[in-house]
Amino acid sequence: MSKVLAVFGATGQQGSSVVNHVLQDPALAQQYTIRALTRDTGSEKSQQLRAKGVDIVTADVLERASLQDALRGVHTVFAMTTPLIGPDVPEGEAALNWEFENAKRIADVALAMGVKYLIFSTLPSVRDVSGGKYTAVTPFDAKAKAETYIRSLSPKMESAFFCPGNFMENFQAQFWIAPRKIDGIWTLARPALATSKIPLIAAVDDSGRFVGKILAHPEKYAGKRFCAAEGRYSWDDIAAALGKSAGQKVVYKQIGYEQWRGMFPFAGKLFEEAFRYAEEFGGYFGEEEESELSWAIGEIGERGDLLGFEQFLEKYPFQLQE
């Protein structure tokens, strides 16, 4: 009999990738029956999953009773949490604690309902890596704190961790920091050096590849963290690739932190500290970034199985907006 795999955020980027990967992998499709968890079972994306034969179940991370119903009879969970970012919402410790408590609630209910294995989408702890110097990057710190808590539940419930790099999709979605015309030239502006590199992953296409490896070999990867990305790209390379896709030249320009902070409609300090941390402490994943990425890519197979940034932009062309 197949095991029930409950996927949080099944209609979002990471969750949908996990669902589709399992459905398309013959071995995983036999091993697991998917239960897609979402707040809106009537959405178009939910209906698309239902058409593929996926069981769609309502789950609200803010309501323990909802989680109990959603996780009844589940063997394995893929869980992710969304940060509290936006206008007119708390920032700082309040935002960190809000997201952490949501993750903790999922883990506590999963344990109480007899779930055997939890795969959690995590991120590095900026405040720990920086020795407490940077404390505003709460989406990272909340997930890292949740990871520590989830690890403490072993051996009653085993766990593994998917730690994705920057989403390639963000360059199109985050329009307020997309390339813009400066003195008539399309310019990608960031406070980092042009040669600084960031890890990129096609979240929708490739998150499932990493999580699928854990699902295929849960005992082997218990307690492991997959720092997941196709590769590391310099800002110069990113600008050139965006321009090539859009059919216009795009150049990279390093700007000051005050100007960068002013580009955000909200949470400017968060994004400022995220860049300061990466520049000062070795990158998005910290000083061991290259080795951790190499290990993760090696575990899932050849790098060519993942979508490179130029391939991503060929599949999903980038559009410049005046």
UniProtKB/TrEMBL annotation:
Residues 2-284 form the NmrA-like domain. Keywords: NADP. The keyword Aminoacyl-tRNA synthetase does not apply. It comes from the Eukaryota. The keyword NADP applies. InterPro entries: NAD(P)-bd_dom_sf, NmrA-like, NmrA-like_oxidored. GO terms for cellular component: nucleus. Belongs to the NmrA-type oxidoreductase family. PANTHER family: NITROGEN METABOLITE REPRESSION PROTEIN NMRA FAMILY MEMBER (PTHR42748), NMRA-LIKE DOMAIN-CONTAINING PROTEIN (PTHR42748:SF11). This is NmrA-like domain-containing protein.
